[in-house]
Amino acid sequence: MGCGHKDDKASLASSQIASFSHQPHQPPSTPASKEVWKKGGRMFSILLAVHLALLACTLVSSGAFEKIAVHDYDVFFLLTVMMLIVIIWIIFYLFGTSRCPDAILCKDSHAGPIWLRGGLILFAIFSLVMDVFKIGYYSSFYSCLSAIKIIYPIVQAIFVVVQTYFLWISAKDCVHVHLNVTRCGLMLTLTTNLAVWMSAVTDESVHKAHSKLKKNVTEEIFRWLMKAGMRSSSAEECNCNSQICQIFKNGYFWLYPFNIEYSLFASAMVYVMWKNVGRFIDHHSHHIHRLKFRLFRRTFFVGIVLGLIILVSGLGVLILYEVQVNSSTESSKKSQALTMYYIFNIVCLGLMSLVCIGGSVIYRFDKRDMDRHKNPTRTLDVALLMGAALGQYAISYYSIVAIVASTPRDAISALNLTYALLMIAQHTFQNIFIIEGLHRQPPKEDHKHDSHQKDLYGLTFVNINAVSLRVPDSGSTLAPSTASGAEAIHPSDFVRSLTAPKKMNWRRKFLREISMFLLLSNIILWIMPAFGARPQFDNDTELNFYGDSMWPAIVDICLPFGIFYRMHAVASLLEVYIMS
Q: What is the distance between the alpha carbons of residues 400 and 394, in angstroms, rounded to a whole number?
């Protein structure tokens, strides 16, 4: 596992780099021979990840039910072991693999953009706060709990810190030593994040079901739903009765959405790193675009203002919905809350669909070339957008079938049907807009006069009239050197380049407005279901049609993908905004 046996590979790599410098226009075909069988190493790591994922999925799903002899502290034990192994491997990578000679010959400029890593750090902070609340909650009655219940959040906090630091500094690495070990380590990291995600989603779903049914069920069913992994002989003694315990319990359940998004963000970044293991990048064909993020420049503010209006209105609707649905037992207030929720979402989804169609039409007039270079990050973004949208598609189609086939139909059913149809349309049009934006080349400046304008723009204290006096009125060129090496430029072009301000193309301005509006709208559409506004559980049409067992299971499986879609769309739209 050391670096000594890599000397022959290091010499080979150095000769390859030298050949790159002498032949800049040829693709790097020879480095592929460095690894004997690249697909074999990938296949082994994939098989490892599949088996671990199936094992974790089996334990997590079994631990959600009390009648199955699998407790959630069994799940916590498996996740703790997996996280400890990942922590050990990350330390080995940082202090061993990455410091070997010629370990990282190139970096993928598209992998781990700053806004993605910034979002990862934001979710990591909230995940750490959630772990603190968990430790406080379980410490309130540690005497009747398994020790793993307290060890698990401590290990998870360490895992979040170590992994976040690892992804922040290594997300762009293309590793060329310890290839199979690195692939297996990255796949183990990805599987661990997905297992933590499955555990969090399952725990949150059980908690939501318990909160909805606590007031209207018998003690026997209540204890069945209350399954929390405690020892069966002392379940009653471990009830959370103190006020501080309730604060910790409610606090960490409210922070679950951030931990869920953190696991998915980390999984996406780890997958890109896995794809880049052993990859050589030809920097002559792999263009690096250094774009500046200017939020309040070159914009009409229309998209930002409308997006903020939607965001603030959505927060108000969320608060009223939570108060009227969860805190009141009156059916009239529940109907009012559902009506308000559906009307807001219908208006929001309708505007977003129209805006996405307008953006796709603007792309028809866009003269920028399509970016056809190999880009694992963009490929993953597209796959995640298309795959995560399937969750909301499934919920919408199930709702449509239930509403159309059910009788009688009321106003809420009509609003629900409109909401489901618009949800399908909005996801489709938004995916088209985002995918087309991700495949566009960044805007290129007019390079016709760049070499001449560069010197003239540097004359900050020169009077424009003085410059024009030095330029002859005839059609000759400014200097004789231009006649031999460059295109002849009329003198009036130089004066015009000084006096005329740089103007952004109108298409780019509209695309920026559209991207910012969609970004803010997706944020509120992520916040609402992530923090409790889930009409799928409060609308009786689907529950009566599919039953109390089938419909909650469909929503619990599909809704996390819909929530992740919104957050991933925010990151993709931010990239589209910067690329416009």
A: 10
244 and 153 in contact (C-beta within 8 Å)?
no
Q: What is the DSSP string of 199-264?
A: HHHHHHHHHHHHHHHTTSS-HHHHHHHT--S--GGGTGGG---SHHHHHHHHHHHHTHHHHHHHHH
Between CA 456 and CA 229 the distance in angstroms is 73
Helix/strand/coil for 175 = strand
Q: Which two tokens stand for residue 16?
A: 């390859």
276 within 8 A of 111, measured Cβ to Cβ: yes
**189 close to 272: Cβ distance less than 8 angstroms:** no
Q: Output phi, psi for 107, to 5 deg.
A: -130, 145
Cβ-based neighbours of 510, under 8 Å, separated by 6 or more:
358, 359, 362
Going residue by residue through the chain (580 aa), what tens digit of pLDDT does each one get?
456 444 444 444 444 444 444 444 444 444 444 555 567 778 889 999 999 999 988 888 876 665 666 777 788 999 999 999 999 999 999 998 888 888 888 888 778 778 788 889 999 999 999 999 999 888 877 777 778 888 999 999 999 999 999 999 988 888 888 888 999 999 999 999 999 998 888 887 777 766 665 555 444 444 544 444 433 333 344 677 777 888 888 888 888 889 988 999 899 899 989 988 887 776 544 444 444 545 555 556 788 999 999 999 999 999 988 888 766 667 778 888 889 999 999 999 999 999 999 999 988 887 776 777 777 778 888 888 999 999 999 999 999 999 998 877 788 889 999 999 999 999 999 999 999 888 877 766 544 444 444 444 444 433 444 444 444 444 444 344 444 444 444 555 444 444 444 455 777 788 889 999 999 999 999 998 888 777 777 777 888 888 777 888 888 888 888 888 998 899 888 888 887 7
Work out whether the CA dihedral 192, 196, 198, 199 comes out positive or negative: positive
CA distance 93 to 85: 12
Is the Cβ–Cβ distance between 476 and 483 less than 8 Å?
no
Q: Where are the beta strands (DSSP E) in 29-168?
A: 104-107
Exposure class string for 542-557: b at 16+ Cβ within 10 A, else e: bbebbeeeebbebbbe
Place of tokens 């334990």: 59
| Positions of E strands within 313-437 | none
228: Cβ–Cβ under 8 A, 6 or more apart, which residues? Answer: 72, 238
Question: Burial level of 62, CB count in 10 A (0-12/13-18/19+)?
Answer: middle
Structural domain spans, the chain = 296-442+503-579
Name the one residue in this structure whose structure tokens are 């805006």: 355
Do residues 419 and 556 lie in contact, with contact meaning Cβ atoms separated by under 8 Å?
no
- Provide the 8-state DSSP code for 173: E
Buried b (16+ CB within 10 A) or exposed e, 108-133: bbbbbbeebbebbeebbebbbbbbbb
